[in-house]
Amino acid sequence: MLQLSVWMAPPLLASLVLGSVYAQLRSDRSVPGTDALRLMLTTAMVWAVAEALALAFTSAAASQLMLMISACCGSITALAWLTFALAYGMQGLQRVRPLINALAAPALLLVLAAFTNPWHRLYWADFGVAARPDAQFLIAETGPLHTVQLGYNAILIVAATVILAYDLCRASTSVRPAVLVLTAMFGTATATILAHMPWNPYPWAQLDTLGMAFAAVCIKAGMLTTGLLNRRRVARDQIVDAFTDGVLVLDADGTVVDANASGLTIVGMSEAELNRRKITELITTLPFDQRNERQRSRVELTLGQRAYEIATSPLNPEEPELDSVLVFRDVTQRREQERRLRAMQQELEEIAHTDALTKLFNRRVFMRRLDEEVERVRRHGSALSVLLFDLDHFKSINDRYGHDMGDRVLRTVARVAASHTRVTDVAARIGGEEFALLLPETKATGALQLANRLREAIETARTPQDAGPALQVTASIGVATVGRQSKGLEQVLKCADVALYDAKHHGRNRVSVADT
Questions:
Q1: 433 catalytic, yes or no?
Q2: Residues 194 and 200: beta-carbon distance below 8 Å
Q3: What is the chain's Cα-based Rg?
Q4: What confidence tens digit (pLDDT) does each residue in 350-395 have?
Q5: Which residue in the list 309, 321, 433, 441 is annotated as catalytic?
Q6: Residue ranges of E strands in 383-513
Q7: What is the pLDDT of residues 350-362, one digit of tens each?
Q8: Is 265 helix (H, G, I), strand (E, B) or coil?
Q9: Contacts of 344 (CB under 8 A, 6+ apart)
Q10: What three-state secondary structure class fits 190?
């Protein structure tokens, strides 16, 4: 037979609250652990309904069966809560599945003890009946295994709540979800303690189900309302571990206390090998002393075949003497691109400044340097000499041997001219077979001596042919020297050209000096 009483209200109310929370859970399973949360709510509802039916049945056997079902659901609820907390924090159960299986074994044994209680009386020592004017209720005298189950469930619930509260603090910028989850645990614990105290005047009243209802309300307000179960949460440590940049965390003494996967790859060690190693042992060429470098800084360093930009900064800028973090960004590709860019710039500059055939300076560079040196002489005095030389009968070489052979001769003469210049001199090709030497700080005597040596060197130089004897050429050279007091200082190149014409007019293969 069934009996209705006001004492059935607490478990029935709890089942309704748990059912409403379950209904609010969306079917989206993108957040790990939602299946375990659904299982927890389901078993908690069954638990509450079984507690209500235990009060409704007048048959002792039926009431005992309901108590057995509620005992089973209590263990499953606690284990499911822990499973949810671990799955939510670790984004899956792959790592903790062995732990869950191990914890399920004692819970299963305690459930079996509840169902086999008539044979050993270790879960419930005895049963009695409390007669009330409105109804009669079965009162269970708990045994040692019942106490063990309560303690075991309490350990699972406390551990799960602490883990979940910690993960919620990482997942949300607000502490409200974590506070509500902790409040749920304390509310459940308070209701359970009151329900099982010896001085409880209403031992048949299932007050612990009210604790579950209170916990469900807190979970709803702390997680469902804030949307933490409607979107996948990615832990900050998982994000850091997925960085392509290497991250090393150092303590105040420069000891590595943590590293992400990329950081381990950079230093070439496993997490176990890296444990408590000094950063100076791993990177001997670190360009700063970690104990003294506590402010933000950025340097570049080559490790092995890779180049890294290393940024260091304290984890807490207000207390820079505490832990700091090193971030290694691979800039090898950027460095290679910069090297290629510099090479291209250098090549373009060379193209703009040099003669493509002879690799001497071109006419534009020569004229710019000539203007600079003329201005320097005008301001500071000293002397400036210019040598202008032209190859004799060069057209006949092109006509007889071809332009390819003519180009070889020009390169030979260019090498000879370059070998007779100083660092401050400028050797340039300014026309077809016409060359010029700009000689700063050089007086007429020195310029004439250089011109004669150059003429002799060109005459004795040989340009080999693919077939036939090597070719020899001669050159006529005009020399012009000016100083601050010279008239027509800017016309020094024209004066050298006049002297060159004079050398050709008087027989070629000779040096002529301009009257400046």
A1: yes
A2: yes
A3: 48
A4: 788 889 899 999 999 999 999 999 999 888 888 899 999 999 999 9
A5: 433
A6: 383-391, 426-429, 434-440, 475-483, 511-513
A7: 788 889 899 999 9
A8: helix
A9: none
A10: helix
